[in-house]
Amino acid sequence: MIEVEVKAKINSFEEIENKLETLGAEKSKTEFQEDIYFASPIVDFAQTDEALRIRTTDNDIFITYKGPKLNDKAKTRKEVEMSIESAAKAKDIFEEIGFREVRTVRKNRQYYTYENFEISLDDVEGLPPYMEIEIEMKDDADYTEAQGKIFELFEKLGITDGFERTSYMELLENLNSI
């Protein structure tokens, strides 16, 4: 699966919630997410622009691999995800084979749906408010049109700048290095 995602810093959740409601977007769920990111013993994910994480939510646990970004306009990349039964056991396996924990990112996320878009408002510990708009596509699909539609939706919501291609983990790392 290819994930076409664009993220932007926003001024306030309340302002965007009102705009989403006016647009006709439907709030689908709210959940807490904890993401544990790992470094590989053989590949420098910072250099290859990949990510491996364990995500724990209110109801599920997943291992997610994110491939390198496919272009320079959005976070368009291959994503492979699978459910697991235990974050602690997966973390133990990863560490036993040489992966090491890099950072944990915690956030409260509100999900909205609008047409074929998934919209999330992200309250990430240590960061200002962000919004992500995402479309999932088959691996062989042309994602260029989807990217354009995402930017059009941002414009409808009054957001024309503050776009960010960096992951929340990288944003938090950059804050710590200042």
Automatic annotation (TrEMBL):
Gene3D superfamilies: Hypothetical Protein Pfu-838710-001. It comes from the Archaea. GO terms for molecular function: adenylate cyclase activity. SMART domains: CYTH (SM01118). Keywords: Lyase. The keyword Transmembrane does not apply. NCBIfam families: cyaB (TIGR00318). This is Adenylate cyclase CyaB.
